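Technical note accompanying the year-one report. For the benefit of new consortium partners, we illustrate the data format agreed upon in the data management plan: each record pairs a sequence with a structure-token string. No post-processing was applied to the example shown here.
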Amino acid sequence: MAGDGTTEGTEVTGIGEGGAPAGAGEREAVRLSYRPQPSDTLTGLRVRDRIKRTWLVLRSAFLVLWVGQWLLAAVRNGSVEVVSSVLFLFVVVVLWGYPRLQASGVQRLVGWQGEYHVTVSASGISCANDHSTLIQKWSVFRGYRETPGHFVLLSRDPNIMVLDVLPKRGAEEAGDVDRLRALLDRYSTRV
């Protein structure tokens, strides 16, 4: 029996310093520190859209309908109407800009919270900032997708309402990105 009240060879899990999951899994833990950027959220939203495809299909269908309406009005009238053209351009800008507006809104929610300190371990993912700590077990996630600059973890719910975006720029040591990829492969699946 060890002096700290645990038996030898038993993994102890709980909350360690800074809200990080504690225990034997800490040896393989990877730590990231970063300030969230709108581009992080935009990457997560794009990954979710590619996985779900619903938003992409709806956006494409809506755009095709507007193009068709605009072309029919132009052919029917023999010229392009200014109002119809302005509305068409407005719709294109809204469809193109909507994910950016979402990312900007998320940035307003998380940006003021300061530096994020994330620990990824066998116990799950712990994220602490100046105002809160969130601990998520691996069972929360359906899987992850890697992009050139991020790892995006996607929740199990049908609408994928929860995204954890882990920017690679937050890696503290050389080799952390490879270790993080290995942890994600071990405890989650690529989607």
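Partners are asked to follow this layout when depositing records. The two ends are 43 Å apart (CA to CA).
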